[in-house]
Amino acid sequence: MAPSFVGELLRLTALVLPILQPCSAASLYSTYKFNPLEHLGGVAPYFEPQDPPASPSPPQGCSVSRAVYLSRHAAIYANDYDYEAYIDPFVSKLENSTAIDWSKIPALSFLARWTAPLTDAEQELLTRVGRLEAAQLGVTLSFRYPHLRVPSRVWTSSAERTVKSAESFARSLELNEDGTKVVSIYESKEAGANSLTPYKSCPAYSSSFGSDQSAVYLEKFTKPIMERLNAMAPGFNFTANDVYGMMELCGYESVIRGSSPFCDLDLFSPDDWLGWEYTADIMYHYNVGYGNRISGVVGLPWLNASANLLLEESSGEQDIYVSFTHRELPPMVFVAMGLFNNSEFGGGEAAINDTMPLDRINHRRAWKSSHVLPFLSNAAIERLNCSGSYGYDEGDYYRILVNSAPQPLPNCADGPGTTCSRAGFEQYLQERIDMFQGYSERCGVDYDNSTDSLTIYTDSKVGNGTAVGKRYEAFA
Ligand SMILES: *[C@@H]1O[C@H](CO)[C@@H](O)[C@H](O)[C@H]1NC(C)=O
Ligand SMILES: *[C@@H]1O[C@H](CO)[C@@H](O)[C@H](O)[C@H]1NC(C)=O
Ligand SMILES: *[C@@H]1O[C@H](CO)[C@@H](O)[C@H](O)[C@H]1NC(C)=O
Ligand SMILES: *[C@@H]1O[C@H](CO)[C@@H](O)[C@H](O)[C@H]1NC(C)=O
Ligand SMILES: *[C@@H]1O[C@H](CO)[C@@H](O)[C@H](O)[C@H]1NC(C)=O
Ligand SMILES: *[C@@H]1O[C@H](CO)[C@@H](O)[C@H](O)[C@H]1NC(C)=O
Ligand SMILES: *[C@@H]1O[C@H](CO)[C@@H](O)[C@H](O)[C@H]1NC(C)=O
Ligand SMILES: *[C@@H]1O[C@H](CO)[C@@H](O)[C@H](O)[C@H]1NC(C)=O
């Protein structure tokens, strides 16, 4: 049976609504469970891996006084590259394969009646599940921070899918009509570091980084799958890209229709899904992760601007700052922060590429794209006011949440739980600046009005944004 995505949403809802969970009797043997939707990298519907399982609640004696969030947009109907490279070729091949009687092939019988869940025109649009995910984040934050002021502005890069995510989020967060306005930041190729898409204005970044390396593992993991499918359905000529696209459809179809026959574990086994996930992880390692020397440089301006909002003593304009962007930026910020570093506890910087071998899976890696960049993947930096945390001084502390799970920072661990002190955080920030400053120079910008810092949160020229209103317009 394909795991039900609706069931997954209900499970997520249960995280938000305090309902009583039944106690299960201890079982003698563990039962193996596997959900492919949690191994789909950039195509994974939002989920919270809780890895490590530290509590998202503030440590004892602490309360959050300010928070800054960065979120990827929520679920969409396939991005253009995935659609053109994998999904559309598979779908048109399928439409041509009239000589094959799919209904006679057990694991693939659904293909006799299956139709593609999206059209050309729907590429890149937010799905209804996407609106739900973004709205759920708004409700989650208002439950998480009941004592903080509702933000008057949220920021988003200018693409439709990020703007719509910001709007759904704002609607669910605001208590009054037009309480939260959406500020759109143009995705300029000449914005320097001053946008929510700084990789687009960095010539040293290329969206094709990682494709050569991931192609090596793609070939390895798809070979036995191709042979199995070709033995079942001779004449279709399943290719490595067909297999990759069918597995991607598990994610995309789930966020469009609520479930997908491609997720069925009788069609693709857990090992097949782990191979898919590792292929994506290799790609993102070299594209937006530790295997690309520019990642931290592009991620630093957001980290620096956000840390400064939190370090500022005065109460400031807002308590909560939230921004929406695309899948590239959160992982680059994680590199700037030093999170999910496969080498953190050994191997050192030089060996980082060795932690992602191309001939077998490193199951113990910290860098898992399904955890790092699912739809709506979000990172928070919180400032906590602690008094009465036994064993720690009263004062300000800082911590990071990724998809609600606290993540320990490297060299910044002198506070309760996963937090670190104000002085520790300032020193940590300086270390990260020393590693990654110099955006314009290191990106090799070829325009002369570049800048190394992100000022959209404090620059009055950015404006107050556009009101969203609590009501949805007619379905558009
Ligand atoms: C499908 O068939 C048409 C007509 O024979 C052909 O032009 C097209 O290339 C085929 N598409 C694929 C993906 O095989
Ligand atoms: C540089 O100029 C371009 C074109 O006018 C503009 O889009 C971009 O935002 C500017 N960059 C900065 C950092 O102001
Ligand atoms: C599959 O490949 C074989 C051998 O290359 C070729 O003869 C056949 O026409 C192909 N079938 C389809 C449906 O493309
Ligand atoms: C990853 O960890 C290693 C070992 O601690 C360290 O040398 C390296 O600088 C880290 N990389 C980044 C980008 O923080
Ligand atoms: C990792 O591989 C990338 C791509 O080949 C290369 O640019 C980078 O320098 C390598 N990193 C290290 C630390 O060797
Ligand atoms: C921190 O908490 C203490 C105790 O609740 C309170 O007296 C103090 O005003 C708070 N400080 C800030 C900056 O919120
Ligand atoms: C960090 O942010 C501060 C405050 O906005 C700014 O003055 C500084 O230039 C920034 N530094 C870097 C390296 O971006
Ligand atoms: C933005 O909002 C602030 C505070 O509400 C107000 O003082 C300012 O005039 C507004 N700016 C614009 C350009 O509307």
UniProtKB/TrEMBL annotation:
Example GO molecular function: acid phosphatase activity
Claim: Glycoprotein is one of the keywords in the record: yes
Gene3D superfamilies assigned to the protein according to its UniProt record, in alphabetical order: Phosphoglycerate mutase-like
Matches recorded under SUPFAM superfamilies: Phosphoglycerate mutase-like (SSF53254)
Keywords: Disulfide bond, Glycoprotein, Hydrolase, Signal
GO cellular component: fungal-type cell wall
InterPro entries assigned to the protein according to its UniProt record, in alphabetical order: His_Pase_clade-2, His_PPase_superfam, Histidine_acid_Pase_euk
S-S pairs: C62-C386, C250-C263, C412-C420
Signal peptide extent: 1-25
Name listed for the protein in its UniProt record: Histidine acid phosphatase
